[in-house]
Amino acid sequence: MNEPVFLKRTIVKQTLWSEHLQEERKLRIYLPPGYNEVLSYPVIYCQDGEEFFNFGRIATLAGQLILEQDIEPFIIVGVEVNVAVRTQEYAPFGNRFKQYLSCFAEEIIPFIEHNYPVRRTRDERIIAGDSLGGSVSLHLALAYPRLFNRVLSLSGAYYPQTREILAQEEDLSWLDINMVVGLQETEYTTDTGVYDFVQMNRDTRSLLESRGATVSYREKDGRHLWGFWQKELPESLLYFLNK
């Protein structure tokens, strides 16, 4: 049996030197069926790049959306992370947080735009993440609103420091965020404590909406695991890609 056509895709691995982080950073880039350098493509940037590809199966899901649901082809960039320093890079209290934001916006984005035919307006860019990856995606949009206004958040880890930063914002009418959280995430243990992710996401939604952000929000049966997020990814992607 031949593989279904949507499994035939190209995934390129690249390594970038980051001056901000003073180390190499690995990227995985999904090029859609029929990829042509003469064309231009919307682009999705993912935190936890390795997990989005391996556990989220985002490349397979992308092929299904493009070939079965007639979604315009798009490119995916997965930014890999060293799990040992993930909280230091993704959490606003981390000692590598500012450097990571700078690396993402000032090094990764220009690198991709130089090497691949991705579109360069913020309406054609989605920034996605799970847990703390969802949180850092929102922080990237807050820090670089000219680059990012579309955030895809899977069970975002919106710790108190993030909500304090949000509370200082006055006008978020430019921001469009898609949030999902699992109803069984009420007592999830992280490396910084035990959190009620449902309440954390509800509180963050309220903060965002009160400042004018467009928030698409849903709660579903699910745990803080890729098994849940993988099932929810197509709906979250379609929210942006259908616009």
From TrEMBL:
Pfam families for the chain: Esterase
Domain of life the protein comes from: Bacteria
InterPro entries xref list: AB_hydrolase_fold, Esterase-like, Mycobacterial_A85_antigen
Listed name of the protein: Enterochelin esterase
Organism: Paenibacillus graminis
Lineage of the species this protein comes from: Bacteria, Bacillati, Bacillota, Bacilli, Bacillales
